Amino acid sequence: MFNCKPSVLSLALAAAGVSIMLTPNDAFAADEIKTETVQSSTADVEVSATENTQPTNALASNEADDTEAETGIERISVKGYSRSLIDSLNSKRYGDTVSEQLSADDLGALPDVSMADALTRLPGISAVRTGGQAAEINIRGMSGGFVFSTLNGREQVSTSGSRSIEFDQYPSELISSAAVYKSPKASLIEGGVAGTVELTTVSPLSKDKQHNFTANVRGMYNDRADEVYGAEDFGSRLSFSYQGKFLEDTLGVAVGYARLEQPSVATQFIGLAYNDSKDVDGIEGDTNGPEDNPANEYISEGFEVQHLGGVEIRNGYMAAIEWAPVDNFVLKADAFMSRFDSESFARGFRTKFGGRDASVSNPTYDGNSVIGGTFNRTSKSYTRVEIVNDDNQDFDEVDSFGINGDWQVTDRLNVNVDVSLSAAKSDFRNGLLWSNVAVDANADAPIFDENVSVSYLLNGLDLPDVGFNQADAFSDIDRVMVSKYGIYPFENEDEVKAYRVDFTYELDNDFIASVEFGARYSDRTYSNDRSVFEYGNDGAFSKSEPPLKLTDDMTTVVDWDGDFSYFPSYLAIDLDKALNAWFPDGTPQPVQTWGNAGGVIDPQGYTTNYSWSVLQSGEVYEEVLSGYVMANIDTEIGGLPITGNFGVRVVNTDQSATMLQNVEGDPTLGAQNITDEIGIINQNYAPTVQGVDYTDYLPSINLNFKVTDDSQVRFAAAKVMSRPPINRLAGDISASVSDDGEINGSSTNNPFLMPFYADQYDLSYEYYFDEGAVVAAVFYKNIDSFIDTIAIDNFDFKGNGFNVPDYIIDEDSGEQIETTNGTYTTAVNNAEGGYIRGLELAYTQVFASLPAGWSGLGFNASYSYTESEVQSITNLGGDTATQDLPGLSNNVVSATLFYSYEGFETRLSGRYRDDFVSEQVAINEQVVNFDGETVLDYQASYQVTDGLGVLFQVNNLTDEPTKSYFGTENKTGTIQYFGREFYLGFTYAM
């Protein structure tokens, strides 16, 4: 047993205005606490006589809330933020790995909209904000794809379409505790090179109260909503939970519900990538230009300016039933469900510069890229300004169910059996309505206005200077006409069924305290399904699909406010009214058809080839069988107590995926008719299933050296793995044979992708003093490789399962030509790996020794520094540039200053991260640099009675925007403002 000074208990009680005397052996894990009853005027602390309770960890027993009158046992209870720090520090201190912890009170008390917000307050953890809200988390400079997550010890799948968990779908009100394991142990499920996040829902039999009910109601307001026409100003949060024990404490029941209805608000500028080039400066032989034409400069596709609004509704459900018919057996069934629905609009305008055929004058350069100038439309360019009125719907479902049986077979042997299902489903529908400027919208045959001139100059991380010769027309119904409508559904489903058995055997040994071993089998299926519908033309007026004349009742003129007020006004279009007027019969009727072209049969007569949708649809299958053995250490060497574990995890993975090989309709090579959702039949492809089987050995060791009663040193080493993004395993395969018989092919993804592997080492020092704790840690990871796209020469197509012919027939001579292997371009684990290393510092201080009235003051802070030699190449900004590992910020800081006094509590929390690399919001597959950001949150609460409390909070106190750029800060990516969120409400517990 560890003993130390009465630091955290005494400081927490002092912070609440109560003094209590403990011996130096009474802190964190006191086996026996004896006190006299102390009357206190504050509702935050209850202190009363306790006799021979002997808890495993007195202060970490965060369920010790009330007097148990029937047994005569009364316990110490510390509530509020001080208690949350106690629970977190205790969990960290007595854990057997390098980890960070969050307690139940911590999660319930802070203004956390979701678990994503809550987790970012831990050392070395940061978040990527989407729509102003934290969603994906980064751990130690690595993106969400390297983060593995469990709920009640069970693997979680995601609606993200990859392996990255969207933690904003987990309401903090329904999670009782969270842990982030930065070093693994053999008993943990494999999958997190960055770390493993373990979320836990409540165990009803562990509560001391017979019945416990809590309710939380809050109204919210966004202060930027009035700047966005059609946006909602107000929202709400509602939650309640109940835990009860019945049948002489042998049956426990818990249920919970949390609802979030919040406005989605943003005003944004989005710069588009530099995906074209032309000779702008007229200087030949510019060696800085593209390799294929060194005289050219890079030009951007254009930019967008948009108002975003809508409503996000999340309904979370939790239930658990726990049965302990005898002392040595517990059976628990639990369920968690989240429904996250979002309906939003994006309005404004999109500027297309027109590509290499546009006329460019007065250019301004950053390197060899054009960041300013005047673009004029020519007869060959597509220079234009589109008025956009988009409608997006996203319906996400997350389900997690499990049954767990825990049987203490003998005094030494414990058996735990678990069966679980985790499922996620996402249905995203992107609806786009394009409008363009006509010369005269009232004409019998309206003509697209080709007199287009756009001037702009990027200002780095500030908004650009812009000018439009058509500015007045953007808000004129006599000029603007609807020219195209498109819907782009994207559905994905992910499901994993898992079966696990674990054994623990206690030993009578001076070195090994116990041995754990077990096995787990999981079966995962992932699918994505793309489809498309389009009508009209976004770059011209189609004669066969004519544009729509707008009327006053369909439109509203929208002005820009605040920082964006200098942009020209535009027309907001009522989508339903416009579509009903455009398609009065409900279905558009195309005039002309291209019929059967390129192996695609189009019975519905659409004028565009939509066959790409079948190529972006497919399934992935993943079966994993793993086993482990781990020894738990509890010994003493030379008077130095040592605890920890060492072991190995063996993992066999069988992964495969559906692929489509382009065999150009040859039935002898397996070509089949593939029909999409709107009836288009593609005859080009041969379906196949391909994959790979591999086995990994993952050793690990965790050691904890108790240097003194107050300090300890941890060391950990392990081999870890993260599987590739699951969506990168399925995709299209294209293989073709040239006239001379050479076979060449390519694929966007690859079912043969192997995991990311890393060897990692952790060393930390923890010191606990009278009024807090200090923790310092260093870590080092050496990652083998990353995914890259390469060309493989002399690729064995037939040997790798491709349906390719042995010979072709020369059309002229009729002779057979034997085929030969050429080049195959695909995604492989080939990008050079390297190290990630860093330093983490954490400090907790409650100033209990200050005079009365100030003893409730406290401070909690963490800092991490991370660096890596891993870099990638980007050309999104035109010029080739290197960028850091996605998710890596060199410096990450989080801090909370808090104060409590007689029922009143207030705190200011902040988190900072400097520049990092991530995917640009609203632009798929564009990984860009993000500017550093500081996000502040504030909360104040008052406990009116023992059960009733009122609360006020502000999220994003300074209205911090997100800003990104391509390669250099001069090439603006995104600039987004989300507004402040104000909450006012009450909590009630009984």
TrEMBL record:
Upper taxonomic lineage: Bacteria, Pseudomonadati, Pseudomonadota, Gammaproteobacteria, Alteromonadales
Main subcellular localisation: membrane
Domain TonB-dependent receptor-like beta-barrel, residue spans: 491-957
UniProt KW keywords: Cell outer membrane, Membrane, Receptor, Signal, TonB box
Location within or outside the cell: Cell outer membrane
Residue ranges of every copy of the TonB-dependent receptor plug domain listed in the record: 100-195
Name of the protein in question: TonB-dependent receptor
Family stated for the protein in its record: Belongs to the TonB-dependent receptor family.
Disordered as annotated region, ranges: 40-69
Signal peptide (UniProt feature, chain positions): 1-29
PANTHER family on file: PLUG DOMAIN-CONTAINING PROTEIN, TONB-DEPENDENT RECEPTOR-LIKE BETA-BARREL DOMAIN-CONTAINING PROTEIN
